[in-house]
Amino acid sequence: MASMVPYRSVFGIRPTSLFDALDDMMDFAPSSSTRAFPMDVEDKGEGYEVKAYLAGVNKDDIDVELNEGRLSISVKVEEKEEDKGKNFLQKEFTSFSATRGIYLKDASNEGLSARYADGVLTVTVPKIVEKKNVTKVAID
Fold first, then answer.
1. Which residue among 41, 57, 86, 131 has the highest number of C-beta atoms inside a 10 angstrom radius?
2. What is the residue extent of each domain of the chain?
3. Is 46 buried (19+), middle (13-18) or exposed (0-12) by CB count in 10 A?
């Protein structure tokens, strides 16, 4: 499984820790069963909008979870039985899985929504609304 938190370029951003550097190096490791997918994360003020570009993936093959501020998007595509045993001259689409995640420190578990259209998964994550319990005290 590929796990990249958040998506970044080895050459564009300096890693902040050894783990970030190792994670970046693993992004380029070849594997026939894992693929990375691009993701955009936008702060909309009242929440976040996360877009994952998953062209050719069925909605049923996507799993989205939010666990203590960590949003994870997982994809697992299995090769169809009808494709097995055919005489392909070239076959590039096979079974694969990928997971991407991002930590959103003030993400709320309430009001999450996701929609998938035209190969783009859009997850809307509201922020936790802090209630300010301010009481004015009269001075005698």
1. 57
2. 37-126
3. exposed
Tell me the two tokens of residue 140. Answer: 């005698």
pLDDT in tens, 14-40: 555 665 565 555 555 544 445 689 999
pTM above 0.85, yes or no: no
Q: How far apart are CA 40 and CA 71, in angstroms?
A: 13
Distance CA 45, CA 100 (A): 23
What are the Cα distances from residue 40, in Å, to 15, 50, 65? Answer: 19, 6, 17
* Whole-number Å distance between alpha carbons of 79 and 58: 12
Q: What is the CATH topology of the domain spanning 37-126? A: Immunoglobulin-like (2.60.40)
Cβ neighbours, 10 Å, residue 81: 7
